[in-house]
Amino acid sequence: MITVLKIQDEILSGIRDFLRNEGFLEVLAPIIGPVTDPGIRGAKQVAIDYYGAPFKVMSSMILYKQMAVRSLRKMFALSPNIRLEPVESRVTGRHLAEFRQVDVEQAEATYRDVMCLAERLLHYVCQKITGKFGEELRQLNRTLRVPKIPFKVFTYQETLELLRSEGFNVEYGKEVPWKEERAISAMFEEPFFIIDYPLTARGFYDKEDFNSLGILRDFDLIYPEGFGEAASGGEREHTYKGVVKRMQLTGEDPAKYGWYLEMLKDGVCPSAGFGIGVERLTRWICGLEAVWEAVPFPKVPGIVSP
Ligand code: ASN
Question: Which ligand 1 atom sits closest to the C-alpha of 274?
């Protein structure tokens, strides 16, 4: 555990060095707010009573990122998130009810721009760790290769076809399920992207591609060797009208999103960004069996622990 935490400490400083060198400013992440990210794939949000007002614990700070880039242009935050994942996810080895993601957002960027940023970030961190912690990785029995840039890119449609050709029965329009995500991840030895998810698979904030309606300009970054999802991100729907329309589709009540919709009416800039999970990154780099091995005080879904 001490070895893992030393490597994690270096991962965090590597991420910070890389992003600062690229001109990103680190801000402090909010932990609670009137609303939070609803696009959390079947997990539940946590509600609290904030001086009589109903508040949520952040499931991700996505809505605040759009506010921050309006003035900061390039920002990131180490954001603590709570998602009450279904108890069945305790055995996937990659779910935690409490985790941290480095949430990145850039004004006027496309999803392709931030995909390039994400792959360079991963490359930088791997280079740093293999250079400095070769002996520790050997102790952990981990052979980590620095991934080659650019990473492979598959569309969601191509991903489904690949899975179907391997005998998996996957339904169009939904998030790639845990088992299938693990299977596709195990088919590769280098990280890769899945892009262009269908509108029905994601939250209201990922931007629809107006040249191919029903498809989002978004992505997941997937680790190889069966480790599964590393990061997700995309271009943002930033217009008031667009967001309200999408909220109607996802069944969100716009009345709950007061401050966010007011901000959009006021006008925010187009942006793109992603969030990369710190514990999952540590797990992959160290080659750990389960993600809870990458956390000093883990909260595994369904398990009551300190
Ligand atoms: N952080 C992700 C993003 O930037 C959102 C999420 O965690 N659901 O797109």
Answer: 4
